[in-house]
Design brief:
single chain; alpha/beta; 9-stranded mixed beta sheet; 4-stranded mixed beta sheet; 15 strands; 28% strand; binds S-adenosyl-L-homocysteine; binds N,N-dimethyl-L-histidine
């Protein structure tokens, strides 16, 4: 553990170390030597990837951020009244926008104590912590730089008020169904009897609307997608030529998820020098970089049930684009 900041109100610890450089190395070694190449979506988010994701959230085509934000604005006071929470643990926290809405509601209710963001992106977490500490006098921040698949045990013990553990933005949809349920079960272990999970899920809708959100006219999502190749180049001394890969995004109707892939325009041979690994791409060969599952209420309830959780309250926006679920341990 490295301690990155410690003052009266703010404490940031990192659990990413050399072993985590191995996490990218292992994922590249494993994912790029498979018959169907694949790399986990968490590797998008270096400083540039986090910045590109922020730009995606502003795009006219990318509705999930606006829809989820509108639900939070309408419901945050009610959620805080219902839970009496004074602590927000946010997994995959990214920018401070959504936390600000929930912390504002806690401040109005007089319960606000602590914000505990956890993210793999050090840059995103540090700037969010600094912004929020300036905005709420009564707030302390305990940031955890880590991977929510491996570092949930480093989330500090609960304080004296109930807490909300939030996984927003539809990030749960970036995991395959089995992993998703395992992750939900592990997150559930952070919940005491009065605590609640707040889960954001994008909803099934017209595939044309979904596909446009993942293939915007300005090509920001395409750059975000190619960023994973820049990350592998800089972290593992590889020689991918990102502009030689086309951005592909399509809605898989059977699985009800979006897939993002990178398709090699021509045959290419990539050296990942740090791993002594040579990877061959045929012309047209694809690398899967992300799935983003879309949900129905029934699917969310099934996942909760399988993970030892139960739905308490279901909130959507008027167009039913996105949903927020408040859930408890069953
Ligand atoms: N919650 C924000 C950001 C969503 S983007 C929102 O709703 O807009 C996904 C965020 O999760 C990024 O900040 C990324 O760095 C983080 N992330 C992705 N995989 C992660 C993992 N395995 N562990 C921790 N953080 C992760
Ligand atoms: C972070 N995650 C929920 C986003 C999503 O919609 O699946 C990431 C993203 N990928 C492309 N655009 C946005």
């Amino acid at each position: 553990m490295r301690s990155l900041a410690q003052s009266g109100d703010i404490r940031i610890e990192s659990f990413l170390s050399e072993t985590d450089d191995r996490s990218l190395a292992n994922d590249v070694l494993d994912g790029l030597t498979r018959p169907f190449k694949e790399i986990p979506a968490k590797h998008f988010y270096d400083a540039r990837g986090s910045e590109l994701f922020e730009q995606i959230c502003e795009l006219p085509e990318y509705y999930p951020t606006r829809a989820e934000r509108s639900i939070l604005v309408a419901r945050a006071d009610g959620i805080v009244r219902r839970t009496r929470a004074g602590e927000l643990v946010e997994l995959g926290s990214g920018s401070p926008d959504k936390a600000r809405i929930l912390l504002g509601a806690m401040s109005r209710a007089g319960t606000l104590r602590r914000y505990v963001p956890l993210d793999v992106s050090e840059s995103a977490l540090e700037s969010a912590a600094e912004e929020l500490i300036d905005e709420f006098d009564e707030l302390t921040v305990h940031g955890v730089i880590g991977d929510f698949e491996r570092h949930l045990a480093h989330i500090p013990d609960p304080g004296e008020t109930p807490r909300i553990v939030a996984l927003l933005g539809g990030t749960i949809g970036n995991f395959l169904p089995g992993t998703r349920r395992r992750l939900l079960r592990e997150i559930g272990r952070l919940l005491g009897p009065g605590d609640r999970l707040l889960l954001g899920t994008d909803l099934v809708k017209d595939p044309a609307v979904i596909e446009a959100a993942y293939d915007d006219a300005d090509g920001v999502t395409a750059e975000f997608n190619r960023n994973v190749l820049h990350v592998i180049n800089s972290e593992l001394d590889a020689d991918f030529c990102p502009s030689g890969f086309d951005h592909i995004a399509f809605f898989d109707r059977r699985h009800e998820w979006v897939e993002m892939r990178l398709r090699s325009r021509r045959p290419c041979s990539v050296l990942v020098a740090d791993l002594g690994l040579r990877v061959e791409f045929a012309a047209g060969e694809e690398l899967r970089t992300e799935i983003s599952a879309k949900f129905t209420r029934a699917r969310v309830e099934e996942d909760f049930h399988a993970a030892g959780l139960e739905l308490d309250t279901w909130y959507t926006d008027p167009d039913e684009l996105f949903a927020l679920s408040l859930a408890a341990r069953a």
